[in-house]
Amino acid sequence: MKTWHTYLFIAGLALTTLMACEKDGDQLTLTTPQPTRLTTSATSVSLTSATATNEALRLSWSPANYGFNAAVNYTVQLDKKGGNFEAPVNLSAGTSTSLSVTGANLNQNLLRLGLAPNNASQVDVRVMAAITRPGNDPSNRVYSAPTTLSVTPYLVLISYPSIYVPGAYQGWAPDKAPAIASVKDNKVYEGYIYFQSPSEFKFTSGRDWNGTNYGAGTANKLSAAGAAGNLSVPSGGYYLIRADLNALTFSATPTTWAVIGAATPKGWDADTPMAFDPATNTWQVTLDLKADEFKFRANSAWDLNFGDGDSKTNVNPDGLLDYNGDNIKVPSAGRYLIRMNLSNPGNYTYSLTKQ
């Protein structure tokens, strides 16, 4: 009899549980969710480093309606105009129905999209609403209609550990001397310097002569001795200067620069030379370009070449030049002024300005 009562109890408990689950199931049945309506504080945003900490954009939206009191999480998505949000950047807003974005945050995400600094571009923006269900079922996601913004990001320059290159070409003044930088912070430095004529120089650790100074030791070697001689370049020109303070070595390589690629008149078969402008410290050329690709290279060889971004290491194009980087894309055919600026070590830049 006791066993029979036990069976009846278990059966009753199972029936009660099943009824409760069915009831709970009724409560969790979703109606077709109603999308949110997105509004933005501006339709055109031009960003600058001076206002990086200020609010650049505020987005707000109506709550998504799932037919019951759900905890809805919202994500703002940005993508290049026409990108169909296939590879967006996502800004989490949690359960809030608004999001304030600072200039620095917005700029970082625009650069992640590969937008060119200092140029106006269009981006599509939308809000994704979702509730959490077992398995994170994507069927509960709902999106606002996208809106298009005009945005202009700025270039982010990084300050790297540096040493300085005073010399006869600039009056032996460390406080005004060009710098060369250690991008990896490993005491290996490089930078590009223009010498008007043959000149002597030294390396200094600071903006004066009071720190460690490096001059000529034995052949192609550096010496920190006070009596070390001056280093030198044999002729004027635009030099790649490298110094390794671990091995106490240096090199000075003269360079002339050109563009090459399918976008240029000579294609990939030959260089189109650029001219150096000492007044702006930039290399320049004005060309009729095709809507195609090109690169910068030195001395009609590939030993020194620049692209923008590196797909092999997941570095997006950002307006900063990368050694052996990806080809640079010309957005549309036309006549362009091409500039390349190698004067800020570690932050080599370029620009395309349609004429």
Automatic annotation (TrEMBL):
Residues 1-20 form the signal peptide. It holds the Pfam family SusE. InterPro entries: FN3_dom, SusE. GO terms for molecular function: starch binding. PROSITE patterns: PROKAR_LIPOPROTEIN. Residues 23-127 form the SusE outer membrane protein domain. Keywords: Signal. GO terms for cellular component: outer membrane. This is SusF/SusE family outer membrane protein.
